[in-house]
Design a protein that fits this description.
Family: Belongs to the TRAFAC class translation factor GTPase superfamily. Classic translation factor GTPase family. IF-2 subfamily.
Subcellular location: Cytoplasm
Structural class: alpha+beta
CATH topology of the domain at 707-817: Rossmann fold
Bound molecules: guanosine-5'-triphosphate
Keywords: Cytoplasm, GTP-binding, Initiation factor, Nucleotide-binding, Protein biosynthesis
Shape: extended
Number of helices: 26
InterPro entries: EF-G-like_DII, EFTu-like_2, IF2_II, IF2_N, P-loop_NTPase, Small_GTP-bd, T_Tr_GTP-bd_dom, TF_IF2_bacterial-like
Number of strands: 30
GO molecular function: GTP binding; GTPase activity; translation initiation factor activity
Largest sheet: 6 strands, mixed
Strand order of the largest sheet: 7-8-6-9-10-11
Distance between the termini: 22 Å
Strand content: 15-25%
CATH class of the domain at 707-817: Alpha Beta
């Protein structure tokens, strides 16, 4: 059975497609509409889940006759069942009665038996309360058990008595034997055999440990006799025994391996002394024997358990191997279960239909057929997207793992704890416009230079290094959150600490809040530099209070953020700030392995006329040296020279060092990863593959989170929906926040990562791209730059005019039912450069089309300061007094907006069309 569409399945079930769709969504299976394709596995799942419901439905749908027949059949079956049950119960009753009779009979017999017990029995019987027949049967059974228990106890005691008697007899026999042996000692040695034979029969291995001192003595004697006899029977070790032969010697040796042969010295013959010696011997023998037994037991156990142990060790080895693979998988960002499962087939990203079929060992025709059923007509030589590879494999019940080309070179950074060495912190300065970021960086650099090497004028390489009390701090030179977020958007996490500059005379401003949000999104700690404290209007405490409202709480007030008052202009508090940064870094315990091939990120790059491509990189791991083969983004090459921030040639750059690289093949982009390879060919191959992938990616840029995609993302495990909210007034933001809080967030948590009053800017788009967020705008418009950036980054910008629409959309998106069938498509944008008053017609906007093309039939919105102030239709579109159908970008025209006279110079007229969009998967 192949995959099916929802409506096909609904038809099969005799259900309404919509009803089935909602049931499917309840089952958390991705399906958006009646046309959605369901995989075979999902169809099976749905069938199973709906089986009871469908069964009931089927029963309900049967005609009356069939229903009556079924009912009759059921009644007959029930009756038959009841009959059987009655018969079974009767049989049980009969059995019970018979048992009671039998018990009564036995009781009667035992009561009659024995005169002595008769009285007792009758006494017992009189004691027992008169009970009905069944009860008396039970109590007699209990009595029988009691009697049997007593008899067993008696037998046990008797056996114990017998054993004790036998033991005593054995002891006596032993004593006798010892006495005899002692008496015979010295006169004539007893024959070996009889001595051994005389060993008392019940002298088991366990007995000596428990036996008394006397019995031990007798054992010693017996053992000694046995040994003497054995010695006499086998050749002496020095080989002069006439009877000696090699075989015997060997056999004795072997026996010695398992046998306990205590070294018992001869005893002197006089009285108490002799007994003392015997006592010592007894103790020694006891100990040695126990030891020997223990050893034998261990040897036996290890022989028996050898197999088990080997198995265990093998299991342990395999578990360790699995753990290692899982660890490696996690470090490479791969699902460990896919790497551990032997049934998983690894398929190279971008495989053709033919290659895919070969890897799975199936005919290409089969794959093509399945693709066709999914609405994808591909030929054998066409490449399959990741999604199709997974879909078709799933359809075939096969497991695959898509291997990206870069994975071949994926370096697993798994440094051992002992290889990690402390490294300096990397700091970015952020803050509102004009709060003194540049001045502060200058002041800091000046401090560094003053206390550092003489003559070291900092070069602009994108980062600078400052020394404070022998400790290094690396500052990223580009202040502001744009650069920071742009880097982060590219996956480059280079900053350890953010210095947030807030002017003491100005307080918290919109960009201050933006910076806080960026820092929080990146999970980077903030050190606050309250700047301009030299100014008369400075209120550093007010800054603290304002920041508290945004979750930045001073340490002295019980929070976790360090604050320092500074004046960048008068260079006050700079050392204090640097020391605070060091303190914050110490808290972070920053470490890296310097003894490895270097890797890190490009923080700035340009093409220098004289020197060719130049890139400033920040080393994050390992040590970079001239001569290293390096890849930086899509560029590669051999490091010709390293230049430090002071403009000097460097011999090496270690973790947290910024350094300029010369010798690359092309100019990389800020935020690109760089990595050193042992072999230059590998570096080149990776760079080329990256370039190829970038081209591919350009064609199919991975979209960021979008409302259309939210349901699928939730299905894939997304649990958070990040939002950037921009609105015309603060009240709208608060209202939206309130509404979200009331929403069911059990499946996906809604987080507003940034909100502000104003139009949607490029920075909003970069933040959204970096945090995989959706931008929501209320009565605001994106700037042209923001729109372009969003298009490029595939960031979803949703613009609303009423709050409930946004709430409805997000609610619908969560369950995959987002259905705005109509969307506004922008057509063009015009800048109002003049306003003409035309009698009888009204005000006409003299415009310049800055983007796209505006047509006479388009709807328009009038935008002022990024806010929509009017929406309506075009009443007239003219070029030089002529009515025209449309005007393209770069041309001037006159636009009359129907019903709106308040047009002003500087307004923007945006043309758009409302189009019906067919929702696809
Ligand atoms: N009085 C006083 N003025 C300062 C201080 N720090 C900076 N300024 C002044 O504030 C103005 C802005 O300083 P910048 O360093 O350019 O501020 P910025 O944050 O880098 O500004 P942008 O680059 O435009 O974002 C300049 O005129 C500085 O001279 C200070 O500590 N005290």
């Amino acid at each position: 059975m192949a995959s099916m569409r929802v409506h096909e399945l609904a038809k099969e079930f005799g259900m309404d497609s919509k009803v089935l769709l909602s049931r499917i969504q309840d089952l958390k299976i991705a399906a958006k509409s009646h046309a959605s394709v369901l995989s075979e596995a999902n169809v099976e799942k749905i069938r199973e889940a709906l089986a009871p419901e469908l069964g009931a439905k089927a029963a309900a749908g049967m005609d009356a006759e069939a229903a009556a027949k079924a009912q009759a059949e059921k009644a007959a079956a029930d009756e038959k069942k009841a009959e059987e049950e009655r018969a079974r119960r009767a049989a049980v009753e009969r059995e019970r009665e018979l048992r009671a009779e039998e018990r009564a009979r036995r009781e009667h017999n035992s009561a009659a038996k024995g005169e002595a017990s008769a009285a007792a029995a009758s006494a017992k019987q009189t004691k027992r309360p008169p009970a009905p027949a069944v009860n008396s049967g039970l109590s007699s059974l209990a009595r029988q058990i009691e009697e049997q228990k007593a008899a067993a106890e008696h037998r046990r005691k008797k056996a114990a008595q017998d054993a004790r008697a036998a033991k005593l007899a054995a002891e006596v026999a032993k004593k006798k034997a010892v006495a005899e042996a002692l008496a015979n000692r010295g006169a004539k040695k007893p024959a070996a055999k009889p001595a051994v034979e005389r060993r008392p029969k019940p002298a088991p291995t366990a007995a000596p440990r428990k036996s008394s001192f006397d019995s031990l003595l007798s054992q010693i004697e017996a053992e000694k006799n046995r040994l003497t006899a054995e010695k006499a029977a086998r050749p002496s070790r020095n080989g002069n025994a006439a009877a000696g032969n090699k075989k015997n010697a060997k056999g004795a040796g072997k026996r010695g391996g398992h046998h306990f042969e205590p070294d018992v010295p001869e005893l002197s013959n006089n009285g108490e002394d002799r007994y003392a010696q015997m006592a010592v011997q007894a103790e020694k023998m006891q100990r040695d024997k126990v030891l020997a037994e223990a050893r034998a037991a261990v040897a036996a156990a290890s022989n028996n358990e050898g197999e088990g142990r080997r198995k265990k060790r093998k299991e342990k080895r395999e578990a360790a191997q699995r753990e290692r693979i899982a660890q490696e998988a996690m470090e490479r960002g791969i699902d460990p279960s896919l790497m551990l499962d032997e049934n998983v087939v690894e398929v190279m990203q971008g495989s053709t239909v033919g290659e895919f079929a070969d890897l799975l060992g199936v005919p290409s025709g089969d794959v093509i057929k399945r693709l066709f059923l999914l609405g994808q007509a591909l030929t054998v030589t066409q490449t399959m997207s990741d999604e199709l590879i997974e879909l078709i494999a799933d359809d075939m019940g096969r497991k695959v793992r898509i291997v990206s080309p870069e994975e071949e070179f994926a370096v697993v950074y798994n440094d051992k704890e002992e290889d990690l060495k402390p490294r300096p912190p990397v700091v970015t300065v952020m803050g509102h416009v004009d709060h003194g970021k540049t001045s502060l960086l200058d002041a800091i650099r000046h401090t560094g230079v003053a206390s550092g090497e003489a003559g070291g004028i900092t070069q602009h390489i994108g980062a600078s290094v400052v020394d404070i009390n022998g400790r290094q701090i690396t500052f990223i030179d580009t202040p502001g959150h744009e650069a920071f977020t742009a880097m982060r958007a590219r996956g480059a996490q280079v900053t350890d600490v953010i210095v947030l500059v807030v002017a003491a005379d100005d307080g918290v401003m919109p960009q201050t809040i933006e910076a806080i949000n960026h820092a929080k999104a990146a999970n980077v700690p903030i050190v606050v530099a309250v700047n301009k404290i030299d100014k008369p209007g400075a209120q550093p405490d007010r800054v603290r209070q304002e920041l508290v409202e945004h979750g930045v709480i001073p340490e002295e007030w019980g929070g976790s953020n360090m604050f320092v008052n500074v004046s960048a202009k008068q260079k006050l508090g700079i050392d204090d700030l640097l020391e605070t940064i060091i303190l914050q870094a110490d808290v972070l315990e920053l470490k890296a392995n310097p003894d490895a091939l270097a890797s890190g990120f490009v923080i700035e790059a340009n093409l220098d006329k004289g020197r060719g491509p130049v890139a400033t990189v920040l080393v994050q791991r390992g040590t970079l040296k001239p001569g290293d083969s390096v890849v930086a983004g899509e560029s590669y090459g051999r490091v010709r020279a390293l230049i430090d921030p002071r403009g000097n040639h460097a011999k090496q750059a270690t973790p947290s060092d910024p350094v300029e690289i010369l010798g690359l093949s092309s100019v990389p982009t800020a935020g690109d990863e760089f990595r050193v390879f042992e072999d230059e060919r590998d570096a080149r191959k990776l760079a080329e593959e990256r370039a190829m992938r970038a081209r591919l990616k350009e064609q199919q840029t991975k979209s960021h989170m979008s409302l259309d995609d939210l349901f699928n993302r939730i299905e894939e495990g997304t649990t958070e929906l990040n939002l950037v909210v921009k609105a015309d007034v603060q009240g709208s933001i608060e209202a939206l926040r309130d509404a979200f809080e009331k929403m069911d967030q059990s499946e996906v948590k809604i987080q507003i990562i940034h909100s502000a009053v104003g139009g949607v800017t490029e920075t909003d788009v970069t933040l959204a791209a970096a945090s995989d967020a959706i931008i929501i705008g209320f009565n605001v418009r994106p700037t042209a730059g923001a729109r372009k950036a969003a298009e490029h980054e595939k960031v979803d910008i949703r613009l609303y005019r009423v709050i409930y629409q946004a709430i409805e959309d997000i609610n619908a998106a969560r369950i995959g039912m987002l259905a705005p069938e109509f969307v506004d498509k922008d057509t063009g944008s015009a800048e109002v450069r003049d306003v003409f008053r035309v009698p009888k017609v009204g005000n006409i906007a003299g415009c310049y089309i800055t983007e796209g093309e505006i047509s006479r039939d388009d709807k328009v919105r009038v935008v002022r300061d990024s806010k929509v102030i009017y929406e309506g239709k075009i009443s007239s579109l003219r070029r030089f007094k002529d009515d025209v159908k449309s005007v393209k970008q770069g041309y001037e025209c006159g636009i009359g907006v129907d019903g709106y006279q308040d047009i002003k110079v500087g307004d923007v007229i945006e043309g758009y069309r409302t189009e019906e969009v067919e929702r696809t998967e």
